[in-house]
Amino acid sequence: MPAPALPRPLKGLFNAPYVLLCLTSLLWAGNLVLGRYVAGHVPPFTLAMLRWIGATLILTPFALGQIRRDLPLIRAHFWSLLLLAGTGISCFNAMSYYALQYTEALNGLLLQSMAPLLVAVWCFALFRDRLRLGQAAGILTSLCGVLLIISRGDMDTLIHLKPNIGDVWILIALLIYAFYAAILRTRPPLGPLSFLTVIMALGAVLLVPFAIWEYATGHVLTFDTRTVFVLAYVMVGPSLIAYLFFNRAVELVGANTAAPFLHLMPVFGTALAIAFLGEQIAWFHLGGYALVITGIALATFAARNGRKDTRAEGQAGAP
């Protein structure tokens, strides 16, 4: 699918998948850090619901033309869109915010390192996609970098690491999101703006009963400057911009190639956690960053070579 009609400076960006993936990881890292920042201040399901309601309202005026054009497709593929909304919009985000009430921001960021492996598992289970050797090596290299950071340079710490309930919720959320990333290739052929608007709207509707339950049980939003700042960020950055970028990148290079870039989230997130939450950087952070970036480079190089080989076989008349 070609890039949508955009101002000239943005057309090149929308066709640069690796830049889009880097920016996506930065925006999503900020989302997790701020989710931890308002833990106990804004109920998690309410935060997720307001995030997607706001993002839908902001995007709808720009997407109306595509929505009108795609209305027959939306009706025909409603249940497919509902599945994508439930997995990629509702469950993943609400569960992540809920988990951040019980675990640290860095824990949440570092656990994102499981995402590329989970995406690969889902892609194989659903579509029999196999990782190239270089892609697997890149993912494992990046994972070693994340483990170095988690262990703080002491493997004994890693061996005796005990996850809390928040970490478990994040892993479940990642398993669900990896499924979304894998099945994104089956998305109906809607325009990018209409597709994103529809799944955000459906995701927000799915979250309404949970937000009502929160309110009924006494978990009420504290409306102040902090809340307004966080809501503004999550509605625009990790919602509108990051999902549009990620969906486009997966469309261009596939889920297995896009997934290793999620290892950048701990890199960006650690810097943000240091800035916002007062955490300290150490040598093992820097070593972990180096391994993460090396792993992403390996995986990307292998994926590019794989596409070149495929094109060459096709030109040679391979079946």
UniProtKB/TrEMBL annotation:
Bilayer-crossing residues are 45-64, 76-100, 106-127, 134-153, 165-183, 195-216, 228-246, 258-277, 283-303
Tell me yes or no: is Cell membrane among this UniProt entry's keywords. yes
Where does it primarily localize? Answer: membrane
Tell me the InterPro entries matching this sequence: AA-Vitamin_Transporters, EamA_dom, EmrE-like
Q: How does it sit in the membrane?
A: Multi-pass membrane protein
Q: Does the keyword Iron-sulfur apply?
A: no
User: What are the entry keywords?
Assistant: Cell membrane, Membrane, Transmembrane, Transmembrane helix
Record domain EamA: where: 18-150, 165-300
Superkingdom in the source lineage? Bacteria
Q: List localization entries.
A: Cell membrane
Its recorded name reads Drug/metabolite transporter (DMT)-like permease
- Species in which this protein is naturally found: Xanthobacter agilis
